[in-house]
C-alpha cells in the first residue's frame, strides 16, 4: 500500500495525538456540527467533505473541544482542486475496463453483459482501512442518491475475508454491494492503495479513477457521475 496516498489522514491523526499529549493534559472531546459528541473517525468524515474545517475550542480549562466549522466557498473550491490534482489517476482515463464476472456476498451476480450500457461506480477497500471508513458516510449518501437509477450500478470489492467483512458490516453501515476480492480478483485489479474509486462509462471505459482520500474526494466522484448521466 502506498502510504503517501493516505498521508493527510495519518498526519492529522498524528497531529491530534501529539496535541493531546501536550503539557496541558486536557481531555479531548470531538463534536459534530450540532455540538454532539462523536468519534474521531466521524469528525474526519465531516472534514473530508471539504465543507468544514477543524476548530480547536480552548475556552474550557479542562476540556479541549475539537469541532467542525464551515469553510468559505473559496476554501472549498481550493480544497477540491488540490484533492483532484493529488488523487486522480489520469493515466487510466479513457482505458478500456475489463469486467470479470462478479458475485457479491448476498449472491447477486454482476456479469459483463449486465453492466454494458451502464455507469458503474466501483470502490476498493478492506476491513481495518481507516481512510476507507472515513469516506464511507459520503459514499452511502452517494449510493442512496442514485440507487433508483437503473443506468447507475454501485459495487465494492473488499480485500478481506468474508467473515471479517460480515462482522464489519454488522457494526458499520456501508450501502455498496460487497464483493470479496480473492487472490484471482486481486491479481486482475492490481490495486496498490486503498481506498481506490473508479467510475466506468457506458462504453466500458475509465471515466474517472482515484486512490486515497482528501477533502472533497467524494464530491469529485459525484461530479463525474453527474457528468455521465447528463450526457444522455
Task: Describe what this molecule looks like in 3D.
It contains eight helices and eleven strands. The protein is α/β, with parallel strands linked by helices. The chain folds into two domains: 3-75, no CATH class; 83-229, Glutaredoxin (3-Layer(aba) Sandwich), CATH 3.40.30. The strands form three sheets. The protein has a five-stranded mixed beta sheet with strand order 9-8-7-10-11, with helices on one face. A four-stranded mixed beta sheet has the order 2-1-4-3. A two-stranded antiparallel ribbon has the order 5-6. The two termini are 37 Å apart.
Spans where pLDDT lies below 50 across 5 or more residues:
1-7
CATH architecture of the largest domain: 3-Layer(aba) Sandwich
User: How many individual β-strands?
Assistant: 11
The fraction of residues assigned to DSSP E strands is: 15-25%
When the domains are counted, the total is 2
Query: CATH superfamily membership of the largest domain, which one?
Result: Glutaredoxin
* CA radius of gyration: 19 Å
In DSSP terms, counting alpha (H) and pi (I) runs of 4 or more, how many helices? 8
Strands in their spatial order, largest beta sheet: 9-8-7-10-11
CATH class of the largest domain reads Alpha Beta
Q: What is the CA-CA span between the terminal residues?
A: 37 Å
Morphology: globular
Mean pLDDT: 90
Query: SSE order in H/E notation?
Result: HEEHEEHEEHEHEHEHEEH
Q: What about the largest sheet?
A: 5 strands, mixed
CATH topology of the largest domain: Glutaredoxin
Could you estimate the helical fraction of the residues in percent?
25-40%
Structural class: alpha/beta
